[in-house]
Amino acid sequence: MTRILVTGANGQIGSELTKALRLRYGHNNVLASDIFAPTHVEEPFGIVDILDKERMAQVVENEGVTQIYHLAAILSAKGEADPLRTWDINMQGLFNVLEVARTFKLDKVFFPSSIAVFGKNTPKVGTPQHTVAEPETVYGMSKSAGENWCQYYCERYGLDIRSVRYPGIIGHGQKPGGGTTDYAVDIYHHAVQGKDYECFLKADTALPMLYMDDAIKGTIDLMEAPKEKIKVRTSYNLAAMSFTPAEVHAAIQKHYPDFKITYKPDFRQAIADSWTDSIDDSQARQDWGWAPEFDLERMTGEMVGVLRGR
Ligand code: NAD
Ligand code: AKB
Questions:
Q1: Whose CA is nearest to atom 35 of ligand 1?
Q2: Residue 48 belongs to a domain with what CATH number?
Q3: Whether residue 4 has its Cβ less than 6 Å from ligand 2
Q4: Does 131 reside within a domain?
Q5: How far is 238 from 221, CA to CA, in rounded Å?
Q6: Given the residues 139, 153, 166, 188, the one annotated as active site
Q7: What Rg value do the Cα atoms of the chain yield, rounded?
Q8: Is the dihedral of CA 291, 118, 11, 5 positive or negative?
């Protein structure tokens, strides 16, 4: 029987992924966990600090966990406030998951990487699967190192750990927690509330983005794909759309013609500039059938519709 532990389940992705996994594997077979008490997820829930390996091992053993979806991390913008602490949480947290998974011979582990693994020497347009990855944030460094450790545990210990490089994720549930792509969620909330939006990136900053529904479906599809189809054991490039703040503003104006945006770039501009504009995800499409459904227009219709209804 599949029994899943989700770390970082209070977060933007964790809260949605937990719901989707519960629908698929049975509510009580998915244990949500986070360092904070539950905010957007239901019981069963346990407080698990990913830096506490003994506690993680105890939960895995007591609950008969067979898979871990390891989402807990500190993201790009927040991570720059305390680089060594970010490294510690992102790396030691991953090591604890890898060691617990190896010790208890878990069936599978999911590790989310990010477009933050890329840097200014990476080809900016149509970034290939295998390319230069010289990240410039501590978050990107931790994801890049993490990808290689995942491949190492797979090759050395036979651990079935699977990973994707998420672009910026946009959803109408829980708000994101300290990333550089967060503007693309906040902007919808402002538009629907009738407020102008001050953007912390320049108007022409293109970044790869992905709608939450596609992210959740892609994650579960990857995890359920037959093992022999998984050819990349670092992390798969994933893409759906790329847009600039000016383009998302124009898309929202089709619903709210008077919606205004101003631009006041801050330290996050340098982070965004170091990332790529668009991603080549053909290997994920070919290996395990990745096929996103949402483009900017469809996503905007859905974001506006749901937030307005709320
Ligand atoms: P988030 O910041 O919304 O959630 C992260 C969660 O981790 C939070 O609930 C936080 O309380 C928890 N956490 C932090 N430290 C912890 C600790 N020591 N122990 C246990 N829990 C701890 O992040 P998210 O947007 O949901 O991202 C989830 C994962 O996906 C992360 O690994 C992130 O790097 C990756 N990712 C996200 C995006 C995105 O756009 N959201 C893009 C690329 C990759
Ligand atoms: C961030 O901006 O830090 C995240 C990511 C792309 O990893 N959304």
A1: 112
A2: 3.40.50.720
A3: no
A4: yes
A5: 13
A6: 139
A7: 19
A8: positive
Tokens of 43: 């019981």
User: Same structural domain for residues 198 and 251?
Assistant: yes
| Backbone φ and ψ of 298, nearest 5° | -65, -40
- pLDDT of the residue at 40: 83
Both tokens of residue 42? Answer: 């239901």
Of the candidate ranges 39-43, 112-116, 198-202, 245-249, the one whose mean pLDDT is the lowest: 39-43
**pLDDT exceeding 90 applies to what percent of the chain?**
98
* Domain assignment of residue 16, given as a range: 4-168+210-237
**Cβ-based neighbour number of residue 36 at 10 Å:** 10
Tokens of 30: 């998915």
Q: Of 158, 279, 286, which Cα lies nearest the Cα of 229?
A: 286
Give, in degrees to the nearest 5, the angle at Cα 220 between 216 and 226.
Answer: 155
Cα–Cα–Cα angle for 143, 149, 154, rounded to 5 degrees: 130
State the sign of the Cα–Cα–Cα–Cα dihedral 78, 274, 151, 84. Answer: negative
Question: Which atom number of ligand 2 is nearest to the Cα of residue 167?
Answer: 6
Q: Which amino acid is at 156?
A: R
Show the tokens assigned to 11.
């977060």
Instruction: Please identify which residue in the block is written with the tokens 């998420």.
Output: 166
Q: Determine how β-strand 197-199 pairs with β-strand 161-166.
A: unpaired
Section 15-22 average pLDDT: 98
Q: What is the pLDDT of residue 139?
A: 98
